Amino acid sequence: MSVEIRKIEPTRSQLKKYVNFGIDLYDGNPWFVPPLVTDDINTLSPDKNPAFDFCEAQSFMAYRDGKPVGRITGIINNIVNERTGKKSMRFGFVDFIDDDEVVDALFDAVSQWGREKGMTSIVGPLGFTDMDQEGMLIEGFEELGTMATIYNYPYYPRHMERLGFEKEADWVEFRVTVPDAIPEKHSRIAQLVQQRNNLKIKKFKSRKTVKEQYGVALFELINEAYDELYGYSPLTKRQINYYVDMYLSIINLDLVTVVTDADDKLVAVGISIQSFSKALQKSRGRLFPFGWIPLLQALRGKSDTVDLLLIAVKPEYQNKGVNALLFADLIPYYNKYGFKYAESNPELEDNSKVQDQWSYFERRQHRRRRSFRKDL
Q1: Which of 10, 13, 366, 368 is the least crowded, having the fewest Cβ atoms under 10 Å away?
Q2: Is the pTM for the entire model greater than 0.70?
Q3: Do the strands 200-202 and 256-260 form a parallel or antiparallel pair, or are they unpaired?
Q4: CA 257 to CA 202: how far, in whole Å?
Q5: How does strand 67-77 pair with strand 55-64?
Q6: Closest CA to 164 of 205, 220, 122
């Protein structure tokens, strides 16, 4: 039977089927970590996601014999296009069975939508902004994923090459062994950097205090620190407020370290979170009826792995050892909660500033992912 392509309307019922297909396709796969269904639905909902203030999107699903066999979302980020001077569309939320006809139909549909919008190239997988998952897995298919990353089958990149897509950018990921104590050289650097620059470490006991004193400033710092990175889309005020509420509802404040200067101006931030990977697998991304139980257990620290969600350092302090100061504070807390490993999450392969920070630790580069580009 031929493949039928259907446009997905951004209603909750249609988006739920769309998101669930991306989970059901990996049923039984031990490495896939599903997203929270409600989170992905909200991300794709214009009335929920503030990125729709400057983005356009259209999702498609492929059907054969009445059964879903693939999905893809086309995204146009107008801010990034204005910053780069390009007319480029993104594709994301892409999943499909290993079938040429299905893959061709999906990419034909999303490419035609982009051409109708005046776009001249297609790149992905990328989300609306850098706060979404990005990059197709090309190495590390037998490694447990994280809640912040995409998992896909090994046949995905083969289809990208078959369709004529070429490499745009690569990200690498590291699994770092948490040391029993702060490495001596690391500790010396942290002390020297702190004294030389008159820096202070801030910890918090109250989510309200973090939100009121540094909530917005944290994400403004991320905008400043990430501004030159590939494809970065600066967060708007509405987005910042959205992510402040989202992150502060789940993070353990012990795993958040803020560094300020003598005037209490924000210099750096490190945000970690206990791994939710195994809990999300147990819940299959669904909170109800019982999916909340493993997630609550993970929230209480029943995990041997910590995910490094965000590390941002003010540009004028980068390459000055401030990262050492962040981890000198965080490592004792990692030990307190019994974390044996830390997941770096994706880092651009040419971002030596970030990757140099792992030189003090036992680590292995265990995953690589890629964004692909093609002219329309």
Answers
A1: 13
A2: yes
A3: antiparallel
A4: 6
A5: antiparallel
A6: 122
